[in-house]
Amino acid sequence: MKRFVRATLVLLSFSLLTFACSCVPIPENNIIEEITPIIFWSVQGGGEEDGKITISTLVPPLIKVKKRVLSLKVSLLNEGNKGFNLTYYNELKAGQIRLLFVDEAYAKRGLTRLINTVLTDPNISQRLYLVITKGNFNQFLAKHLGETDNIDYYLYRMFKHYEKKKQGEITVVNLHQFMKMLYSQVSDPQLPVFRAEGEQFLYEGTAFFDRDSMVAEIRGKDDQINQLLYRDRFVRYLVLPDLAVTLGHIRAHTHKKLTPDLSSMSIEIDVKGRIDELDSLARIEDNFQFAALTQKIERYLEENVIRLLSQMQKLQIDPLQIGGLTAKPFSKPITRDTWDRHWSTMKINVKVRLHLEPLTKVK
Amino acid sequence: MTTISLEALKQRLALIEDAEIIDRETTDGLRLTFIYLGTLIDQERLNESILVPLVRSFQSSVEKSLTTAKITRLSNLEQALQYLMKGSVLVHDSSSGRWQAIMLPNSLSRSIETSETETIMFGPKDSFSEQLEQNILLIRRRLPLTALKTERYSVGSLTQTTVVLMYIDGLINPEFVAVAKNKLSSIDFDMFLDSSHVAAFMEDHYHSIFPQYLQTDRPDSCAYSLGIGKLVIFVNNTPFALVAPITLFHLFQSPEDYINRWLVASFLRPLRYLSFLLSITLIPIYVALTTHHYQMLPLQILYVIIESRSKLPLSPFWEAFIILITLEIIKEASLRMPTKTSQNLGVIGGIVIGQAAVEAGFASKVLIVLAGISAISTFLVPNYLVTKSSLLLQFIFLILATYLGIPGILLGLVGMFAHLNGLTSLNQPYLAPVSPFYWRDWVDLFVRGPLHAMRIRPEALRPLNKYRISRRSK
After folding, report:
1. Is the pLDDT of residue B474 over 50?
2. ipTM for the assembly
3. Of A37, A101, B22, B280, whose Cβ has the fewest other Cβ atoms within 10 Å?
4. Residues on chain A touching B293 (C-beta within 8 angstroms)
């Protein structure tokens, strides 16, 4: 009897373990030197008549040997993955994929199909950074095929760095965040935009999406304000050339409030930071001058926030997830159409309060 | 029962070169025959304490002449031979026809030395030797109690090894003593040359790779065990005493734990558990990750591993297997070699073979680092037998990891803990106080709490007197 109980317990634990490991009692053979774990996929096109896309990656991923760009024109994402295996001596595995670069043209046509394919693959982690690219990405890759040039790895480290501790320089969105915003009733996703130009990969700004299609792109100070209002609420440098001032280490605390009839919204933004740089002509030697400058920056920021939100209203998109404020306990969630209708006509009042450290002597 | 006669004794002692038979006559005309084995007895004491007083004596019998010596009157030949072989001098009084035995064992032994298997920096340095009486003395010095009982048994038809069962009466749970007595009485085998042989016959599960009796040569450790309600078994001619009942966790405790500051000891003890787990799973995890679960590796580490494995001809399993076997060969060789040579062997093994294996392309640098950490981890466990067990476990986990990956390692751990949960030591559960759960004992389990907090003896041992402080025991 005792033996029977023991045998049952062992079998039970084995079954539980099997369940815990995605029902694969005998795992895949992934001997590390026989496979090539890829770090990114780059997807371009989708606008051709035959509906085909071009999928590219870089192999081998990390070993210090000369690299190759693998590129295939296919109809389906996994068709490309299979095609790569047929053209390369090692089996390409997507279990370590960390980046998905999507061409601007493809993004404008909608990302749902691509995201669903990636999302449903159990091998692919949700910590996959999504990036919109402009320019010729394959050409950029072709410039980085040297033995010591692990460009794929460096790009991954860049995104990881800015995501960790929310460094506040560039927009970083992973698959999980994108999916959450995409399938939300009232909000829309946003993704970083980079331009591949020769050997360089330049950050341009943030792309706004209407559901899964890219509809707009913001740059410069708009992008910085968007980052401030988005979940980070931290920007390392807020450069305001119009006012000849740079604010540093900016932290914003935003308080948004909707009226019950959804006719207007008030946003109060408390901004803490310091004046890092000031044009030599500007003077903040006394309290009066300093207060005047502060007020000037407050007005400037208010105008820009209103302009940015108006742009979003015009496009009927909600990347800042303001629609989430309509959710109340025990109430029916608002529908997309209702929110869009209210959002596009909503009156917006913005109040910015600056709490600045001048970093110079102010009498 | 055969009656004792000189002829019968001579016949039994034929072809024993060190057997001596001498005749002497006392001043009073008493004729005495002395029979003994020259190598077994203390010849100097025989001359000074027996022969000289007897020959000069005017008394009519041996008992009257030797007032200081313990004299046993013998009744049959088997008894006489038993005494003879244990270091007694047989004395035959021709006038009365009596046979007597006087114990004069040769007390030749090594001196009290420092323990080599359980070395500590601070604390008592003495350790047991092969001499039973000396070992008992070392305990009696530490526990000068009349309640400290010793019961003598003889095991082994050939070796006739003396085994002493020691415990504190009135403190220990009598069930343990009864079980131990029962087990000792029912031992039936010919030779017992070491305490581990006795342990093998007393263990509840002799197929297990985990020892169910703690073998120690430290008197302080034995005294502590007796004091908390355990029993100790001494076996003649072996410096290692057996302590029981024990749990798995006792094997990870060192006497130094109670010497170090409690916070330091509490830091070191979990380190031992961790190092034991590392020693059995570190290399299997490497094999599982490099064979099945490359997805689980951080990209930076994946880079290093791919780099180091890219030109190896062997699969991760064979690479690990060969390195582990080589490591064990070096470890075993260094144990069997003289101290100075073994140091050189360590250098050759560790640096030259490791470096050469990497350069020759037999092993990756990562594996050499992991094998080093794993090998060093095994030495953190104070019990040598557990250290040896971990080696076998490592190979089992290695095979499981190769075929089943991480689930295999988890399955192995489940199996190991299920096995441990089924083990007993003197019929007491081996995983106590975790299973069954005794929360009060946790103060001295994964951490070593302050001595002030250890006011009661371990509940798992169910001692008769559970309080360690006098105020509460009254």
Report:
1. no
2. 0.79
3. B22
4. 27, 30
Q: What is the mean pLDDT of chain B?
A: 88
**pLDDT-based confidence at residue B473 (cuts at 50, 70, 90):** very low
What b-and-e string marks burial along B236-255, b requiring 16 or more CB atoms within 10 Å of the CB? bbbbbbbbbbbbbbbbbbbb
**Rounded (10°) CA dihedral B281, B287, B293, B299:** 90
In total, the C-beta contacts within 8 angstroms joining chain A to chain B are: 84
Give the number of other CB atoms < 10 A from CB of residue A301: 24
The C-alpha atoms of residue B82 and residue B12 are separated, in whole angstroms, by 12
Q: Is A35 helix (H, G, I), strand (E, B) or coil?
A: strand
Candidates A65, A70, A151; CA nearest to B311 is A65
DSSP states along B277-318:
HHHHHHHHHHHHHHHT-GGGS-HHHHHHHHHHHTT-SS-HHH
Locate tokens 């407050």: which residue?
A298
**CA atoms A174, A179, A185, A189: torsion sign:** positive
| Residues of chain B with C-beta less than 8 angstroms from the C-beta of A164 | none
The residue among B95, B1, B94, B89 whose CA lies nearest residue B49 is B89
Question: Is B227 a residue whose pLDDT tops 90?
Answer: yes
Collect all residues from B whose CB is shorter than 8 A from any CB in A. Answer: 289-295, 297, 299, 302-303, 305-307, 309-310, 312, 315-316, 403-407, 410-411, 414-415, 418, 422
What does DSSP assign to residue B15?
A: T
Length of chain B in terms of residues written: 474
* Sequence-separated (6 or more) residues with CB below 8 Å from residue B293: A27, A30, B405, B406
Per residue in B33-89, pLDDT tens? Answer: 899 998 888 888 888 888 888 877 777 677 777 776 788 888 888 889 988 888 899
Q: What is the CA radius of gyration of chain B?
A: 29
Q: How far apart are CA B240 and CA B385, in angstroms?
A: 12
- pTM value? 0.83
Q: What is the pLDDT of residues B276-317, one digit of tens each?
A: 999 999 999 999 999 999 988 988 888 888 888 888 888 999
